[in-house]
């Protein structure tokens, strides 16, 4: 389409880290005021998912373009969004594409933001590591359980040890746990141990 040829859709780079605010800063008051209504929060969330024009935002949150313009002005004043690029409509009208300044907001009472950024990054790294380990354990448990069920009952030694029964129970329980729940619980356990260490 002609509109696809006319659109210059190269938004500026968005800061991959969240905007960090402390409760006593002037910026925090402006951000909280700008996000004070449900509509402004919906607009901000929509922009976090992808850059959009005012008309696209209006359609996304089911409101008028005038309401979007009002909230975008407030969000821009709080330094949460900025004009990205310009697109052209089918009729040739210039439209601003709005983008978030950063990937979210984090309010903390810790003035050492560099330390906080490192800690958030390490927690995310641990969560990813825990999820990977948890997936590996679940896959291993399913494979071992499949192999053990192939054995005929007559081939098992009579009077198996309590350790073998416990291992069989653990493996069968691990194989039946939903992957999402397993990932969540494994990640939660790793984070709890790490957080208590830190």
UniProtKB/TrEMBL annotation:
Transmembrane portions of the chain: 120-141, 166-195
Gene3D superfamilies: Winged helix-like DNA-binding domain superfamily/Winged helix DNA-binding domain
Pfam families: HTH_20
GO molecular function, one term: DNA-binding transcription factor activity
Stretches for region Disordered: 1-28
Keywords linked to the UniProt accession: Membrane, Transmembrane, Transmembrane helix
Residues annotated as domain HTH arsR-type: 30-129
Superkingdom of origin: Archaea
Polar residues: compositionally biased ranges: 1-10
Protein name as it appears in the record: ArsR family transcriptional regulator
Organism encoding this protein: Halonotius pteroides
């Amino acid at each position: 389409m002609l509109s696809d040829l006319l659109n210059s859709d190269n938004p500026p780079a968005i800061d991959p880290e969240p905007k960090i605010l402390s409760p006593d800063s002037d910026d925090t008051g402006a951000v909280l005021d700008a996000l004070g209504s449900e509509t402004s929060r919906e607009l901000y969330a929509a922009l976090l998912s992808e850059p959009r024009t005012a008309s696209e935002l209006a359609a996304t949150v089911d409101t008028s373009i005038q309401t979007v313009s009002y909230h975008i002005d407030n969000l821009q004043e709080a330094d949460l969004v900025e004009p990205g690029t310009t697109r052209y409509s089918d009729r040739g009208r210039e439209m601003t594409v709005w983008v978030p300044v950063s990937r979210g907001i984090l309010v903390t009472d810790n003035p050492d933001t560099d330390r906080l950024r490192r800690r958030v990054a390490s927690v995310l790294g641990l969560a990813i590591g825990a999820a990977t380990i948890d997936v590996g354990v679940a896959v291993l448990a399913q494979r071992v359980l499949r192999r053990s069920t192939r054995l005929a009952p007559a081939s098992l030694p009579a009077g198996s040890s309590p350790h073998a029964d416990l291992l069989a129970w653990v493996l069968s329980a691990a194989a039946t746990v939903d992957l999402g729940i397993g990932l969540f619980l494994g990640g939660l356990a790793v984070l709890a141990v790490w957080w208590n260490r830190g």
